């Protein structure tokens, strides 16, 4: 599958449940697709304002097209994702977790050491001993032409969403 | 009287009522199965989202199946099993079922609004405020009543030496610890739900076994009152995923197991009911006297009327 078709297809999939934006600059990083999802579970009593208990789960996806992905560019991208955690994650009572999903889409060949770095990448942060929730980074690097998806461990949970259809 | 007869008669009466009285109410209220619900007409996948009926049934069943329907009939059996049985059957058919169904259907016909909003729309803001005050007072009463019942159930009296309460209390505390561990491993550490559920349920029954075999928490009623108040505070302030949700999830397995086990047990053993059918309108003497009316209807409340579910039902669906 060519990269343009993959982007178009991915944007349509995001649009169903996510608030999406194209070609945005986030923390001085050019992002091709940004998709935000918020899921609030709660029980109410007499009216919708009388909340008995609730919790929210968020996901922010940053999809970026990269001409070349190597160890250095991967490191820069993961640094960007970590900065996004500090800036955009809002821990509070009722916040369960926020997933920051970083997706790099590339046409170039992925070297073995790069694949190993992607798989080993791990970043998770707890807020107030997890009582105000936590945040986790999912990292995916995708080569649509070779139909190859490499993820870190948390990224495996969403690999089906990024499949080639 | 054989308990199996009561079970079969009860099921038969509920089935007949569902078909006849339920059908009559559906016709009177103009229920149209082809008409789309607000989940479909107002669908925004935020507040309005069609949901699988099985999932909805699970949510409502867990909202309605609380301690009330279990403890109420046990306490009210002091008046004899006949008045309790009659009130449960007649109450559920003509009061509880109608009340629950009616409040949910009112919500459907009012664009999926909660009961408070329906009251405001039909009776005005003052009526809504009055209802809020009443509901809050009723909740305080419910919480204090169940705290007292639980404390009494778990209490250990050294003079009597009965370990039943200590067993239940120890098992319950172990279960709460297990629930928190379950919530932590499933949600925070990402353990797979299927395997965790199997281990969790197995450990749940092990906690009951441990509590029965090693009833170490031999505490007075006052001590349990204090512990339970602290627990209530913790449960309402800790994250939902850490205590409430895993506790309710594991508890649902216990509930289904008890229900299924109880029904199977009645079919296999067919025990005779040994307590008296009726002990009259008045029981007890002097200061401890109790009257059938209103005490039967106060103790068997959730088991026949289930007001609480009608309040949360519209917020659940």
Give keywords.
heterodimer; A: 165 residues; alpha/beta; 7-stranded mixed β-sheet; 3 helices; globular; B: mainly alpha; two-stranded antiparallel sheet; 13 helices; 2 strands
If you had to describe this structure to a student in words, what would you say it looks like?
The complex is a heterodimer of chains A (165) and B (317). The termini of chain A are close together. Chain A has 165 residues and is of the alpha/beta class. Helices cover 25% and strands 42% of the residues of chain A. Chain A has a domain at 1-39 and 53-66 and 87-101 and 127-165. Chain B has 13 helices and 2 strands. Chain B has one domain. The longest helix of chain B has 30 residues, at 125-154. In chain B, helix 6 packs antiparallel against helix 7 (125-154). In chain B, strand 1 and strand 2 (290-291) form a beta hairpin. The two termini of chain B are 40 Å apart. Chain B is mostly helical and 317 residues long. The radius of gyration of chain B is 22 Å and the shape is globular. In chain B, strands 1-2 form a two-stranded antiparallel ribbon. At the A-B interface, strand 2 and strand 3 of A face helix 6, helix 7, helix 8 and helix 13 of B.
Helix and strand arrangement:
The complex is a heterodimer of chains A (165) and B (317).
Chain A: H1 3-17, E1 19-26, E2 29-44, E3 51-66, H2 71-88, E4 95-106, H3 112-120, E5 124-126, E6 134-143, E7 148-151
Parallel strand pairs in A: 3-4, 4-6
Antiparallel strand pairs in A: 1-2, 2-3, 5-6, 6-7
Chain B: H1 3-29, H2 38-41, H3 53-64, H4 68-76, H5 81-109, H6 115-123, H7 125-154, H8 164-188, H9 193-213, H10 221-237, H11 244-269, E1 282-283, E2 290-291, H12 292-299, H13 307-316
Antiparallel strand pairs in B: 1-2
